[in-house]
Specification:
Elements (H helix, E strand, L loop, with lengths): L1 E4 L7 E2 L9 E5 L8 E2 L12 E3 L18 E3 L20 E3 L3 H34 L2 H10 L22 H4 L4 H6 L5 E3 L15 H27 L6 H30 L7 H6 L1 H33 L10 H20 L22 H32 L7 H33 L7 H10 L3 H12 L2 H13 L4 H24 L5 H13 L1
Helix pairs in contact: 5-6, 5-12, 5-13, 5-14, 6-8, 6-9, 6-13, 8-9, 8-10, 10-11, 11-13, 14-15
Length: 533
């Protein structure tokens, strides 16, 4: 056998049957910076190699033939080698030194399967031993005669027990009892996967794989419906409608992020180790990360503006000159869009990174700047939640006034506010708590378990907002049925909503023209209508 050491050559590919007729012990191809391809039949006609070194090359794939004899594979600094050939090709591999930790997950699974098979055979062996030892000696002899074997050796040179009395030859094929059971081969692979990229699929748990489809479809369908109805309505674009459009678009983007994650997980299920590098370092993960941070920050910002607008409307209900106009809301939301885009773009510019984990969240806190970035986002979200809670408490105190609103209306408004605050708290609290601890490098939850938060808590607002802020309101239902009437459906229901709207409008105009001061009933109407927008 020979050792072929082809260091630092200028060749770019290795042709078919390049080593025909040779018995290779080692094939060293390292430091060939331009080597991009080894033909699938390059090792055909050769014996071996036992050792293959392709470190510091530009290879994008390994040949499909001739890998069965390899015991040591060295592929360090082979950054273009992002996918491995079918793992059954590495039937003799004992040591692998690779570039990407995710590839070691594949070999870890192989090792586990081999060990499980050995343990299964050993368990069967123990049971058969017990059963055989309980038999009388003449039965053991009869059994052995039938199998053309002997339970005990005829001379001192033979093993005292022939294992074929317990197993068929097919069961013991390829196994040496003393070596495989007492000193089993253990494949070692480096670098080992870290805590941020454990050996699992993108979503980890199978129940999350089902839930994420239901949640992302709900978020996309709900918010798309709200956008469609509000943008096609022939009624005047008011400030609440304008803000609701922004909120629905942000939550729609969150649904797109979840859809992208779910689709890639379904596509790479069971073989994520072969797709991890392409996904996490490619444009797909960067796009998903940008979508989720942009959507999350724009949603939180818009929710805060909507809450402040409701509080302002109720506080200054009778002062029309202080009413928030569309010309005020547009620059406010423009600032929110610029802020959200800027925050989402920072990881693309090197502040933290979307490539750290498979779910494409900015979890990189290696530098002080990245750590400050994560803390800034979390602190702003906590401040926004406090502002929302404070505003709704003030709104409740205002609406609670018995001189303004009847008791049954008071209870209805209180329940509505409780639901709004609860959904915000459910979404923000768990994420913020664990993320802040992780930002200080004291993680209280693993990446695997954080995926439960990603699916069950992170998108709560995106699913609930279209219902709480739009679909469950009377104004939206009116616009919805009016839109359906244009398509030839629910015309009678739409006409009823249209008549009720004009009746209420004319009644308010008459009351406004005759009254010299706002009545208690009109004050109550304004307070409740602010919550119904």
């Amino acid at each position: 056998s020979i050792s072929s050491k082809l260091y630092k050559n200028g060749f770019e590919d290795i042709h078919s049957h390049a080593f025909n007729g040779t018995k290779l012990n080692q094939l060293i191809l390292k430091d060939n910076k331009n080597l991009r391809r080894i033909h699938n039949d390059a090792l055909r006609g050769a014996t071996g190699p036992d050792v293959l070194d392709i470190s510091s090359t530009a290879l994008e794939s390994l040949p499909s033939y001739g890998l069965e004899a390899i015991q040591v594979l060295n592929a360090t600094s082979s950054y273009s080698l992002k996918r491995l050939p079918p793992l059954d090709k590495f039937s003799s591999l004992l040591e692998a030194v690779l570039t990407y930790p995710s590839h070691c997950c594949a070999f870890r699974n192989i090792r586990t399967e081999k060990q499980n098979l050995l343990l299964s055979i050993f368990d069967n062996f123990s049971k058969e031993c017990e059963s055989t030892m309980r038999k009388p000696s003449h039965e053991m002899l009869d059994d052995s005669v039938e199998r053309n074997t002997h339970p005990f050796a005829a001379d001192d040179q033979s093993s005292p027990y022939i294992y074929s009395t317990v197993f068929d030859d097919s069961e013991m094929a390829g196994f040496d009892f003393e070596y495989d059971f007492c000193q089993p081969k253990v494949l070692t692979c480096t670098p080992e996967p870290d805590a941020f990229n454990p050996c699992e699929d993108i979503l980890g748990y199978s129940f999350l794989r089902v839930l994420i489809w239901f949640i992302n479809i709900l978020a996309i369908a709900g918010n798309f419906t709200v956008l469609l109805v509000l943008l096609t309505s022939h009624y005047k674009l008011t400030v609440p409608r304008f803000l609701m459009c922004n909120l629905s678009f942000a939550d729609f983007c969150m649904g797109l992020y979840l859809l992208l994650i779910a689709a890639v997980d379904a596509q790479t299920s069971g073989q994520y180790y072969n797709h991890a590098i392409d996904w996490q370092t490619g444009s797909g993960c960067s796009t998903a990360g940008f979508f989720t941070v942009f959507a999350s920050e724009l949603s939180v910002y818009t929710l805060t503006v909507i809450t402040l607008e409701r509080w302002h409307t109720i506080t200054y209900a009778m002062q029309l000159d202080r009413k928030l106009r569309l010309r005020h809301a547009v620059p406010i939301m423009l600032g929110g869009w610029l802020f959200s885009i800027g925050i989402a773009a920072l990881p693309l510019l090197g502040v933290s990174s979307y490539m750290k984990v498979s779910i494409c969240l900015p979890m990189d806190i290696e530098t002080g700047l990245s750590q400050a970035y994560i803390l800034l986002i979390l602190v702003l979200n906590v401040v926004a939640f406090v502002v929302i809670c404070a505003c709704y408490i003030k709104i409740y105190i205002a609406v609670q006034n018995p001189e303004l609103v009847a008791a049954n209306k008071d209870t209805k408004v209180a329940k509505r506010m409780a639901v709004l605050i609860f959904t915000d708290f459910t979404c923000m609290a768990p994420i913020s708590f664990f993320a802040i601890s992780a930002a200080f490098k004291v993680p209280l939850i693993t990446v695997t378990n954080s995926k439960i938060l990603l699916v069950l808590f992170y998108p709560v607002n995106s699913c609930a907002n279209p219902f709480l802020y739009a679909i469950f309101t009377k104004a939206f239902r009116r616009d919805f049925f009016l839109l359906l009437s244009k398509l030839g459906c629910c015309k009678s229901r739409a006409e009823l909503y249209r008549m009720n709207y004009f009746s209420a409008y004319n009644s308010n105009c008459k009351n406004g023209g005759t009254a010299t001061a706002p009545s208690k009933a009109s004050q109550a109407f304004l307070l409740l209508s602010a919550l119904e927008k």
